[in-house]
Design a protein that fits this description.
Layout (H helix, E strand, L loop, with lengths): L1 H36 L4 H6 L9 H15 L5 H6 L3 E2 L4 E5 L5 H8 L5 E3 L10 H5 L2 H6 L3 E2 L4 E5 L9 H8 L4 E6 L2 H18 L7 H5 L12 H5 L2 H8 L8 E5 H6 L1 H11 L11 E4 L4 E5 L5 E2 L14 H22 L7
Helix pairs in contact: 12-15
The protein binds adenosine-3'-5'-diphosphate (A3P).
Adenosine-3'-5'-diphosphate binds next to helix 5, helix 13 and strand 9.
Length: 345
């Protein structure tokens, strides 16, 4: 009996001992792992978030492979047939706004495996000569894609051109329309900077932004100046709303697309009814460029051309303030119509 009790006690002690040793070993192992996972400086973790899952490489390689060759005109008719490739009219168009970040938006959306971009601005709906060539000409300008993919094109002149809403409506009354906007005064200066660069290249004379934006006779904002007019977003949008309901538009924050593109892209994915596929892995900040660049996969990445992200000339503060005051009521109306509010002055 005594022997049996001693054996039971020994067994209990053994179990207890194993539990204690097991717990100690677990704690040691856990502390070791934590040491490895947590950077010494917590700020580091903000700059190096864990890299999320990569987009299935096959689709993107296909985009970089055959579709890329097709765009360059290097694929045969047999290849087109074999892969069931088609040229589809766009299901979404980035209609503007010029200098809002239209190129960045198009290129970033093209990271999505279900999106294929038309690389060039086609200017079908805003150019009478192109429009007269007919819808088959337009379709012929579209990239090859798989039937389940959607084609997107961007031509920022569409937003401000009178005839365009009706023409797009005639092609597809349920098309999705993307408008990327920036703070209106900054956009106007960006617009000026682009024109200025062109004039400088051709050795042409040019005026200062201040002289163009302010009417010298009245000292008021010069609404005849195109860079100012384009930034009155609500005026243009109202023309579009005669044809399309507001639900068919999605407003993209161009200022946030510069500083933090992913959330803006995720909103667009949702608007286009696409599964969320663009991830932080696909976007990396390039300190030399001062902008986010695109990572398609382990081997292929790219930044936008140097013509995107020009240094703006310094503008007289009183002119900036005058413009901001001028745009203010139009901005309020724009927020009210679109339901998207910005922190613009
Ligand atoms: P700035 O040149 O004024 O900086 P668009 O393509 O419509 O012409 O717009 C050009 C603007 O896109 C640039 O204006 C730039 O600020 C902005 N942009 C947004 N994201 C960018 C990116 N990742 N790389 C370069 N430019 C970007």
């Amino acid at each position: 009996m005594l022997f049996k009790q001693q054996a039971l006690l020994r067994q209990k002690l053994f179990v207890l001992g194993s539990l204690v040793i097991g717990s100690v070993l677990y704690l040691v192992a856990r502390v070791g792992t934590l040491d490895r996972l947590q950077p010494i400086c917590p700020i580091e973790s903000r700059f190096h978030p864990p890299e999320p899952e990569q987009i299935p490489l096959r689709t993107l390689q296909f985009k970089r492979g055959l579709l890329h060759e097709l765009r360059k005109g290097n694929a045969t008719k047999d290849q087109i047939r074999l892969h069931n490739l088609v040229q589809q009219l766009p299901r979404a168009i980035i209609i503007g706004v010029r200098k809002g970040g239209t190129r960045a938006l198009l290129e970033m959306l093209n990271l999505h495996p279900a999106v294929v971009k038309a690389s060039q601005e086609i200017h079908f709906f805003d150019n009478d000569k192109n429009y007269a060539r007919g819808i088959d000409w337009y379709r012929g300008k579209m990239p090859f894609s798989l039937p389940h993919q959607i084609t997107i094109e961007k031509s920022p002149a569409y937003f401000i051109t009178e005839e365009v809403p009706e023409r797009i409506f005639k092609m597809n009354s349920s098309i999705k329309l993307l408008i990327i906007v920036r703070e209106p005064t900054t956009r106007a200066v960006s617009d000026y900077t682009q024109v200025l660069e062109g004039k400088e290249r051709k050795n042409k004379t040019y005026h200062k932004f201040e002289n163009l934006a302010i009417d010298a006779n009245t000292c008021e904002v010069n609404t005849k100046y195109k860079a100012v007019r384009t930034s009155i977003y609500t005026k243009h949008l109202e023309r579009w709303l005669k044809y399309f309901p507001v639900e068919q538009f999605h407003i993209v924050d161009g200022d946030r697309l510069i500083t933090d593109p992913l959330p803006e892209l995720q909103l667009v994915e949702r608007f286009l009814n696409l599964p969320s596929r663009i991830s932080q892995y696909n976007l990396y900040f390039n300190a030399t460029r001062g902008f986010y660049c695109l990572r398609f996969n382990i081997v292929f990445n790219k930044c936008l051309a140097g013509s995107k992200g020009r240094i703006h000339p310094e503008v007289d503060l009183s002119v900036v303030t005058k413009l901001q005051k001028f745009f203010h009521p139009f901005n309020q109306k724009f927020y009210q119509i679109t339901g998207r509010t910005f922190n613009w002055p």
